[in-house]
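Re: beginner question about structure tokens

> Can someone show what the tokenized structure looks like for a real chain? I only ever see the sequence side.

Sure, here's an example I had lying around. Input first:
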Amino acid sequence: MTTGAAAGVLAASGLGVSAGTPKAGGTIRAIVPGGKDSDTWDARTHDSLFMMAACHGAVFDCLTEIGPDGGLRGELAERWTASADAREWTFDLRKDVQFHNGKAFEAQDVLETFALHIGNQSGSPADPLLRDVVGIKAIGTHQVQFTLHSPNADFPYLLSDYHLVIYPAGFIELAMQNGIGTGLYKVADFKPGQHLQAHRVKNHYKGTRAGFFDELLLINEANPSGRLNALLECDVDVAGQILPVHAPQISKQRGMSLQNLPGNQHYSFAVGGNLGRQQAEIVRCAVKCAMDRPNFVRRSLLGYGQIGLDTPIGPANPYFAPELTQPEYDPELAKSLLREAGVNHLRIGVSPHSKQEFSTILESFTQQMARVGLRVDAADSPVTASLHFAAGRVTEDWAMSAYLAPGGVWNRAGWQDNRVDKLLCVARSEMDAERRRGLYGELQSVVQKSGSLVVPAFANHLQAITDAIATPKAIGAQYALDNARFAERWWRA
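And the corresponding structure tokens:
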């Protein structure tokens, strides 16, 4: 077994079908949101497009990488094999890699990096993904072996997570301070919350097949109008996370183009709070019944998306279950359930930044809840609904583990269901593709009916480039901006 998924989603090596021959040279200037004054190169703290593009997309590397087509390929790992039961995974590491400080890459770097993430005290968002790892050891200087508690046919996919970039053993603290990785670009100037300037590494192990720019300038801008204006005034070449309301203007503008890419990116409201289990389930059901999803997609996304089915598994996942019945819009039932629960207001959990970025989403949610008598934004409510703008994940197990697993950082409601936990374990261990499809279909049905998430919509990735930039025909939509790897995959026209 040499692929990362029993479904056989492993892609061939390469950058996809090119829209032209990549040219080396020049600078790419990109403006994206999410940077904070507190940012460092500690990937355990990263949760924004800015640091994803800077760290995982430019300065550091992971063992594996999600390609533009959603398939898996090696990055610092050249190849991997699994035992027959998919509990033991052996990775052959590249031998021609150096960190930016000159240290040679080897197995010990992998061991010390993963020690940062494994264990309940690690504080790492990747810990729920690695909870099944019961052992990791070096076999020689360029081979590592992971042993799992239970089989996982998709395990190599998890090692592409943007929190799992590899640090140099013995220099981890220094690397987290100064950005010492193995990536295509070396840090020249990094001002947290403002910008990253980085230069192309000479004689990099990826050679001439990636990293075509001489220089990368990544600018942070939280204001969506600020990103739009920078693009329209040609101060930048690339703008990420364009608002739907700005998309038509870019589409009509000469000299630039809008990339409108469907994927697993979604808005979710995690409903929880200081409630008993039965009362919480009644309130969640009421909120789901109160959502007019087609209206939400039309009004909040202006049609740049599709209706969500209250699970984090999206239309780009191989075992997405489109046959699930769309949750019924039933405002009268919602009112009845809220009366039964004795609830008439809830507190929305959202950061000041998100209020600015996603004001139309919040407005639509608030108005729809008001129609069933549920007041939103009450500070003293025992009921909460945390807004989360999530990228989704490339496999079903990864998505469920990230957003609904016990202890998961993005499990905002602290939701847990023993039936779901057991189904997840069985599904990730199943090697037969059709049986896996059935298991993941059952999982989606259970989560839709009883889960803590209200997922009203999957939102397309909206991003823009000027005619100065060329891209491959295949552009990744796992994360924004070609899986946050635009600096590696695009070039100057």
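Each token stands for a local structural state, so reading them left to right follows the chain. The CA atoms of residues 281 and 450 lie 7 Å apart.
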